[in-house]
Specification:
The complex is a heterodimer. Helices cover 61% and strands 8% of the residues of chain A. By secondary structure, chain A is α/β, with parallel strands linked by helices. Among the domains of chain A are: 161 residues, Rossmann fold (3-Layer(aba) Sandwich); 77 residues, no CATH class. In chain A, the strands form 3 sheets. Chain A has a 7-stranded mixed β-sheet, sandwiched between helices. A two-stranded antiparallel ribbon of chain A has the order 7-9. In chain A, strands 10-11 form a two-stranded antiparallel ribbon. Chain B has one domain: Roll (SH3 type barrels), CATH 2.30.30.90. Chain B is 11% helix and 39% strand. Chain B contains 2 helices and 6 strands, in the order E-E-H-E-E-E-H-E. In chain B, strands 1-6-2-3-4-5 form a 6-stranded antiparallel β-sheet. In chain B, strand 3 and strand 4 form a beta hairpin. Chain B is globular. The chains are: A alpha/beta, B mainly beta. Chains A and B meet through helix 3, helix 10, helix 11, helix 15 and strand 12 of A and helix 1, strand 3 and strand 5 of B. Chain B: Pfam families: FeoA.
Amino acid sequence: MTEIKIALVGNPNVGKSTVFNRLTGLRQKVGNYPGITVEKKTGSFAHQQTRYHVIDLPGAYGIHPSSLDEEIVYDVLIDKTNPNHPELVVVIGDPFNLKRAVFLYQQIREMGLPAIFVVNMIDEAERSGTSIDVNKLEKALATKVVLTDARSGKGIDQLKAALAFKPNGYAPSFMIPEEFTAATQYVKERTGPSNEYIAWLYLSQKQNKHLDDSQAQEVANARQHHGLNYHRLQIQEALARHASLEKQLAGVVKDPAKKKQYVTERADSVLTHPFWGYVIFFALLLLIFQAIYTWSGPFMDAIDSAFAWLASSTAAWLPAGPINGLITDGIITGIGGIVIFIPQIAILFIFISLMEESGYMSRVVYLMDRWLRPFGLSGKSAVPLMSGAACAIPAVMSARTIENDKERLITILVTPFMTCSARLPIYIVIIGLVIPHEKVVGLDLQGLVLFGMYALGIIAALGSAWVLKQLMKSKYKSYLILEMPTYKYPVVRNVLLNVWDKTKGFVLGAGKIILAISIILWVLGSFGVSERFINAEEIVQTEKPGLSGEAFENEVQSQKLEYSFLGTMGRFIEPVIEPLGYDWKMGIGLISSFAAREVFVSTMATVYSLGGTDDELTIRERMAAEMNPNTGKPAYNFASGISLLLFYAFAMQCMSTIAIVRKETNSWKWTFIQLAFMTGIAYIAALVAYQLLK
Amino acid sequence: MSQHKSINHLQNGETATIVGYGSDEIPIKIYEMGLLPGVTLTKKQQLPFNGPVYLRIEDNPNAIALRKSEADLILIESLVKA
C-alpha cells in the first residue's frame, strides 16, 4: 500500500474540520506541534490501495500569518524537511468567499506544491440560489475541483477519489513586480529556493523559521539593501492578486438575481443588538453555570461513591500495609479526585463547542471587545476567560487565536485567576465550615459567598490585566478584524469529538500529575527518620496511656504524620504561614496544593488521619473539630477560613497550568512573574484578611 | 475633489463603496478578508461607547466586525443615504 501525506488548508469558517472528520472518522489524534501547543489534528484513511495521512492545518486567510496558529501553515508548507510537509494540499473554500480561498490556493501552488480544490458548504449555496461552474473553476485553477457538503457527507467519496489526481500545468498568477526582481534574484542565489515566488515569500514573511542563521542574514541583507518592508510586500501581493482574481473567476459563481435576506442577518439584529445582545449573552452565561453545577451533580455523586467503593473494597482486598495505603489513599483517591471533574468540564466544553460550531462565539468576541479593551485584552480574550471557569489549561491554549502579542500574553497571564473547577471543592468545604447557614434578604448566605468568590476571580483577572497593560509595551498595533460566519446548526459529531478530545486531554494531563503527587505525598507522609516517627506506638502509649482501639490508632497515625518528612516540611514553613492563621497541618495542604489545588481536601483528609475524602461529611466534621495548636482556636474559624479562601482564589497552585504557560509564552521569565505575582497577591490578601478579622 | 470619508462616517443602514485606505500600515487581514477597493458594504450597527462596527459585504452571507480604529483606515464613497 502506498502512503501519501496530505494537508487540509482553508480559510476559517469554511467547515474544514467537518471535512477532516468526514475523511478520517475516529481514526484521528490530537497532538501538538513540536515546541508549541497549537493543536495538531492528524488522522488517516485508506482509499484504493493508498493510505492517506491527513493533517488538518489551522484556518488561515493567506500564507502571511497574523496569529500564532496561522504561522504553522507557512512553516509546514514552506519547509520540505518538516515532518508534516504534505505531498498534496487540499485547499478548502466556501462558495460565498471563493475569491479568498482561490487567493490562498494560488499562493500554495506558486510555492510549488501540488493542490486540489474543494468548495464546501455547497448545500447552503444551493439553498440561497448560488451555483458554481465546476468546469470553469477547474480551468481557472488548473486542478481538480470537488464540490462537497461535509455536514451531510455529500461529495466526500468524490474527494477521496480526487486525491489521486496529479495536478500540473499551473501558471503563476502573481508576477513579481520588476522593481523587486533584483532582491528576489539575490535571495534566490544566496539561499537556494526552488523558485522566484519562494524567494519573494522569504522577503515578505516576518519570520522564516526553517532558514538557518546565515540564510536568514542574507534575506535581511537583501531587505536592507533594497529598502524593503515585509509588510508592504504583503500588501503589494494581496492587491495584485485580488486585482486579477476578478477576471480569472469571471462566470464561475452564479448568484441569484433576487437577493433574499439572510436568516443570520435577522438573528444578528437581536443577538448582537447593542442592548439585547448583552442581555442574551449574560443570560446564556447564567444558564451555562447553572447547568455546570446542577447537571453535573448526580454524575459527580455517582463518581464519588464509585471511587469510595473502589477504594474501600481494594483496601479490604489487599493485605494491610503501606502498599495498601498507597493504592487506596494515594492513587485511587487521587484519580477519583480528577475523574470527578469530568462532568463539569464536559458540560462546559459542550456549551463552548456549541457556541463555536453555531457561529455564536464570534459574536461574543464582537460584543465583549469594547469592554475588555481598557484592560489590555481583546474581544478574543473572552473565550479563554470563559473556559478558565472550567480549567485554565485548555483556556490558556485557546488564547493562541489572539493576533496581538501583548493581548495574548496578558490573557494567558490573567486567565488562571478565573475560578476553575479545581477551586470549587475547596471553596465548598471552607464556606461550609466558616460561613453561617443563614439567609440574607432571602438569599442563601453561603451561596452568596460562593458567587462572591467567582466575582473575585473576575475582578482579579481584569485588575491584574489592567496593571500588566500599564507595564507592558507592544511592538504591534492591536486590531480587531473579525469575520462573523452565518449561523449553522452544530454538527453533533464535531461537538462530541471536540468534547472528547478536550476532556481526554484534561484527564490524562492532570491525571499524570495527580498520580505523581499522590505517590510523592504518600511516601513523604509515610516515612520519617525522627525518633517520634519510628517509635510512635511506644511514645503514644507512654504519653497517653488511657487510649485504646481506634482512638489509639488515630493518635499514633497523627503523631507519625507530624514527624514524617511531610510533617517536617509543614512545620518548616509554619512560621511563614502562621500570620495567615494556618497551622503546620494546613501548611502540608498548601505545599501539596502547589502541585494542584484540588488535592487540598484529600491532603487534609490524609493529614487528619482519616485516610480519605470520600465521606465529605466526616472530613468536614473532622475539620470543624480541629484546633489550631498555636492560637487555641478552631483551625477553621471565620478569620482563617476567609484567609484560606482568598489564598486559594489568588495563588498559582497548579503545575499543569505553569507548564502550559511556559509552553505557550515560551518564556520562563513570564511564567515566573505570573507565579510570583499571583502567589504574592494571595499571601498579602490572606495576611491582611486574617490580621483584620482575627 | 473632496476629502474621502471613512467607514466611521456611515450611519446605520448606509451603503458605500471602498475607494482606498488612509494609511500604508494597515493589517494584511483587511485585504485578506476582502475589504478591497471597489467592494460595496453596508454598516448595519455599532456597539455603544464607540464599540466595534458591524458590516456586511455585498453578496457575502458572513458579516465583518471592525474596531473604530480599523474602520477609520478604510475610505469610502457612500452610495445611498439611509
